[in-house]
Amino acid sequence: MLETIASYRLRRSTPEGEQPMILPKWATFFACAALTALRASDASGTSPTTPFQYWQDPCGYGIPTPYVGDISRMTEAVAMLVPKAYLKKRPDDPNYYYFTETSPNVNYPGSDDPGDPASGVPLAGDSPFLNETRYAPRGRSAFLISPNVVVTAAHSPNPPGAEGNFDPRNFWVVFDMREKPTAPGVCTPPNGEYIPAENVYEAKPFNQMPVGDALIADTMLYYRQPEAGGGTLPLFIDYAAFYLNRAAPSSRRYLRIRDHGHLAAYDNFAILGHPYRLPAKLLFGMTYTKDESIYQYPSYTSPNFADFYLMDGMSGAPVYNVDRDYVEVAASGYSGKGCTNFVEPNSTFNPTNTWLMRDGCDQTVLPGERVQTGVNPGSIAYLTSLVSTPYLRVEPLDDVTYVLPVNGSPTPTQTTYTATASSSAAANTIVSAYLSAPPSGQPAFLQLGGYNTPLTPGSSTNITVTASVPSSTACGIYDRYVTVGDLTHSFSDTMRHRFEIGMTDFTVTPDDTPDVYAVTAPSFPESLTYTLTNTRPTAVTVEVFSSQSWLSITPSSTIVLAPAGQSGSAKSVVVKPSTAAYSLPVGDYPFTVTFDGQGTCQLNVPVQRAGVLHRGVIRYGKSFSIPVPSPTPANAPVTDAFTIAATFCTSDVKVRFRSKYAGEDHTTGWGLPWSILAPSMRIFIDKTGNQGVTSQVWNLNPLPWTVPYEEGPEESTIETLQLDRTQNTPPTGAGSLSIFNNKDAAGQWSFRFYDDGIQTVNTGVLEGWEIEVYGSPFCSSEGG
């Protein structure tokens, strides 16, 4: 019986620091600690039904229990960057600051362009956080990565993206701008008139702004992406890091930034920041989609996320991996890979003439929509060589998967983790390592070796984990976890060890199925061959069946694959139309071939390949690239050929040519625009074998160069070459395509091209051809 044991981590705060524990999946539930005291609704009167939707006040909604500690850490580390003009020290009490230009969240703030017609348009009545306080008209988000270093986005609006315009000395760094629980079920926002001075920081003074790629006096870290051919592209790595004028107290936790290892598809993520300069908002439950760089520099790759919604003011906010305790990337706004859709006022989509922020990332943009995107295109790992961090480094961070048969042995039997204390740590680092407890009645599978602790700055210790599986273990998937904790700095790394015991899986190639064409037997192609390959050390039985009875499967519908690497681990299956297929009326018939692994321990879902049988026609096509004019002598033509094995009577032939204009990267569709054709160009369709014949379908030599040729719509065809569709000008060559009619289709069909002219300027490109040969079993003259 397939048994999947999935676990999540529960975090708890202790005097020694934050320690991960393990809870099975069934024990995960939504709960509220002091941070997450529930309230009836937010100021907009609209409450998300699940923490995996939309923005939320981290104070106001339930967070999945394993992640309460992670979100708590984020709320301590995230800050609002406020231009100094909007925050002043109180003249009556130097222990507090006050905001000078607060306003209610009632309209869409628009862009940095003062002429933006959307600015000032009211928000819809059900928009999130309606009427909450905006503490400043401008600003962004930031987060702490060490006691005295803050990271944000470097782009500047004056002008947008201008090099060197971000100056941290122009901002206050304000922590704890978030709602806090003040009574059961009650969350209270910050008092903008009294911001504690202990929460307000500024940049450490320095003497000059960065110039070019320079890192000036270790006080501001400013990044630019190098170009392949030399020079730099400013702000493609949209991060700025700067030192604070004083270190944060030890009670304020900071975030780790990703400097090694990698995220996984099953990780969970959160982003916390200050949209519209509101109290901190949380988006939880984002999922990682793929690791892809939009540039050609792999070292600057940043991940893509699904369900990433960005709002103005979120630039610089951390995208935090709550499963692995790393900031993977930061919000940018300069460019990005997320989406937030605002529906503009219009009578069709929003007749109330208001802005409404929608929950979700649409696949298409509706009329009247704006789309803002904003995951930083550069990996935050780019910062790690420039910023000293005090926490423990554990390597490797990769999850481990053991694939073995029942009664087999896991490989590798040992995994060694190296824990290294930072050389910049202010004190010794206390290391903690432990294994997750297995569910009741199940084996542990893992044993933990000894290690040294505490570690002096710069020193290391090895932690060895040994894997073993009892012979009586049933097939299934079992997850165990190894955690290495830094108790001094309250971080931990948890690596999954997955045991896939006796699980079966296979692959099917090719990945796609070509369409099948048939008039009489054999079809074109005559058969489809699929190769099944076992990828696991356990034998697997695969049932192969078709959705249509007129397809035959050989050698058998039941295929047994030996364990991977052994003889018989790969076998082929041939699928072809049976005799009944050739009795079907002329038309198109979809079919599906299914490959279904048998048994309760099959890892893969059934694999399917879909195709279409086209009765009554044979179709062939080929792509190429032939410049026109292209001097090619008649004795050395460009050719392409295919063979029709079936014997039947040709009733019609259609030919299409694909072309484009020289220097363009798109096709003009099927058909040959007259302007790219040379007078000296010759195109032939040849058919050899029984009743062979040749049709010269292009020969413009006797005609003036300016003879018009209708481009026609896509899929336009040349049946009897029509130089002008209205006048039905016949081809000037030796024959038209109609000369193939009522002749045996069996034989080789070919495309032949040459150009014996003297023109050398290429005006176009022939990119491909396609031919359709229609027919019936017998010609009318044969009485069939």
Number of strands: 54
Given helix and strand content, the structural type is mainly beta
What is the beta-strand fraction?
Answer: 35-45%
Overall shape: extended
Query: How would a crystallographer describe the biggest sheet?
Result: 7 strands, antiparallel
- The side-by-side strand order for the widest beta sheet comes to 18-14-7-12-13-22-19
How much is the average pLDDT? 75
Low-confidence stretches: 1-53, 158-164, 207-228, 291-300, 335-341, 346-351, 358-373, 665-675, 701-734
Provide the helix percentage. under 10%
Distance between the termini: 60 Å
Q: Tell me the radius of gyration.
A: 34 Å
- Counted by DSSP, the helix tally is 1
